[in-house]
Amino acid sequence: MTAEARPNDGGTPAEGLSETEAARRRAERGPLGRPATSRSYASIVRANVFTVFNLILLVFGVLMLSVGDWRDALFLGVLVSNASIGIVQETRAKHALERLAAVVETKADVVRDGAVRTAEIDDLVVGDLVQVAPGDQVVADGRLVGSASLALDEAVLTGESEAITRAVGDDVLSGSFVVEGSGRYIVRALGPESYAERVAVVARAFRHPRSPLERSLNRLLLLLVAAMVPLGAVLGIAIWLRDPSLEYAVTTAAAATTTLVPEGLILLTSLTYAVATLRMARRGALAQQLNAIESLAAAEVICLDKTGTLTERALRVVELVPAAGVTSTALENALGRFAASMASPNATLTAIASAYPREPARASGQVPFASRRRWSALELDGVGYLLGAPERFAVGELAERARLETNAGRRVLAFATSQMLPEERDELSAETRVLGLVVLAERLRPEAQSTVAFLRAEGVRLKVLSGDAPATVAAIAADAGLPRTVPFDASSLPEDAQALRELVLETDVFGRVSPDGKRRIVESLRDAGVYVAMVGDGVNDVPALKAARLGIGLGSGVAMAKSVADLVLVRDDFSAVPALVAEGRQILRNLQRVTKLFVTRAVLAAFLILAYAATQSAYPFLPRHLTLASAIAVGIPAFFLALAPSSGRWEIRGFLGRLTRFAVPAGIATGAGVVTGFLVAERALGLSLVEARTVATTVLVAAGLYVIVVLEATGRRRAAGVAALCAALGAAYLLVLAVPAGREFFALAAPSPAIATASLAGTVVAIASMAAAGLLPGRDPGTRQGAQ
């Protein structure tokens, strides 16, 4: 029998595969399919280009360029800008995530021809012999052929933070990490065939959850598109009755119809999100979706695992409980020396050494920890010391305290001494004397309590979903500041959808949650109408991240979790969330206000179409007039106001109702003023069509600036700033009228007393009508308590 084929541990080659055999198997298999770390370029382009808004603008833009004046197709610039901003921002996020994935690329120690070498994951093949040591990641599914007290952290797969001991013959799964000991395993599946990849197969589908504002805007768009059908018919008949030229028909149709589409609102939203994304990046948050910060601000429930968010992965000592006759100082000294002197400290000993630092001593004997024994031992200066599970010791009067702490979710160990170092056997000597108990818990992140307090104060409900024991999860949740509550063992979630919905709405702490259980809990909340966010970093979190309205990944998490997340906390800093929520709510509050400007213009467009059909006059605007007026009285001020500091109420639900209560009277009043000024100029004063359209444009600008004052003048300082902004914008419009090149480009007439008179008449009608409808500065009827 050759060395390569010589069996070991049940027929496993001790020397591993030869390089020749590995190369042959690799050639037969082909390259591994790598998991996506971010969205594809194609999906980014599709999401930002192929929208209904863009289609409507594109159709009329092409028509204008074909048969009209190119200056009346300026609105195409909004289409290009909107798509470009979204594509550039999401491409930047894609590159950042790919760089992050490259930094944390995992390698493996593989045995080939009897020698150990480091290999890329793509280099491995089925049948390879891989060895692991503490801190290593299991990179493929396999079966153990060697184990020296091997303990694995499988939290990213199961959510269970307790290390699991594995012995020869046991299966190991990719994605787990070695906590203690060492081992060797034969690769049975890797890449797309591995368990981790199969669990995360849902990550392959494109995911673009809509934020509350986006969903409201989509419904608004559907309403406007529906309104376009009858309004388009009315407009078409009115144009046909006038027997116009093709250029006149296309120009009038474009001016009347594109105004119904709030195309600038989508551009403004994208710009605002882009600016917010840059601010988020400075706080260590990477947005993969432009709407991520608004979605975070709108979150009503945030589901999270305790490990990595509320707690660090390290343990902390909560308390030492000395036995009778033992002083606290003596217990601390002995325990500190024990932890400092152990050759291979685990997480528990590291926590003890951190709490009670002492100088290490040379041990004359040592028994490492093993799950079979559930204790470890060390001989120092001729005295044996032991640390292990309290049920392995005669703890006497400390038994009740150990039981209470265990039921409270703490990890409890007994520390004892013996005249002789125990041998590696199951039973301890009766001469062993217990010195006290060590009570440990997972270490809360420094910012966990303040973060939880902020979110609860903001009305955000937190739900902890963990694979750990329910009592442990409840203890950590209480330490972090969540109300003490009875945890639920999610290993027995109700199958009935209604029963599950009632459970998840009432319960905030879940233990023993499987990956599918997390998904079911999140989906049940979502289906109940709750806007739910999910924080996760492991493969076990991927299904829930996909199901949530907003997925939040951690920078140290697995690549697949980051690839499906809408927001990635690159530095794992959960304390960044409060600032992001505050900024997101400011953006949401501002965008809800400025949206009213754009919808007011859409209502105006509908009014003008009906007025155009009812009269024999020409349409009062060319497309370029509306582009100019919209930029001055809607687009430019909206951009500044969307990014300005703000405070006050904000609401997710009922937004369309509040929007309607403002936009309908404001749009009708503005339309009445425009028609009045146009008819006065054309019929009463006998002005030319260019002059009458100049009057209509002037009235539209003046009425639009008044609407801004109504919406934004909510306090003395803010009112002064808004007044100054409107004055500057009004001056910019007058400058266009004063400069011949500006008048020629926008087809406007030079100011005259007649134009001023007609403009004043129309403006008075518009503002008076709005005032009669209750639209006064600081008294927006679209809200219950004035300005938001």
Explain what you see.
The chain is built from 26 helices and 21 strands. By secondary structure, the chain is of the alpha/beta class. Strands 8-21-20-19-9-16-18-17 form an eight-stranded mixed β-sheet, sandwiched between helices. The longest helix is centred in the last third of the chain and has 39 residues. The N and C termini lie far apart (83 Å). The N terminus and C terminus are likely disordered.
- Helix/strand-derived category reads alpha/beta
Low-confidence spans: pLDDT under 50, at least 5 residues? 1-12, 200-206, 782-788
Mean pLDDT value: 80
The neighbouring-strand order within the major sheet is: 8-21-20-19-9-16-18-17
What is the overall silhouette?
elongated
| Cα end-to-end separation | 83 Å
Number of strands: 21
- DSSP summary: helix tally: 26
The radius of gyration computed from the alpha-carbon positions, rounded to a whole number of angstroms, is: 35 Å
Determine the fraction of residues in helical runs and give it as a percent range.
40-55%
| Percentage of residues in DSSP E strands | 15-25%
Major beta-sheet overview: 8 strands, mixed
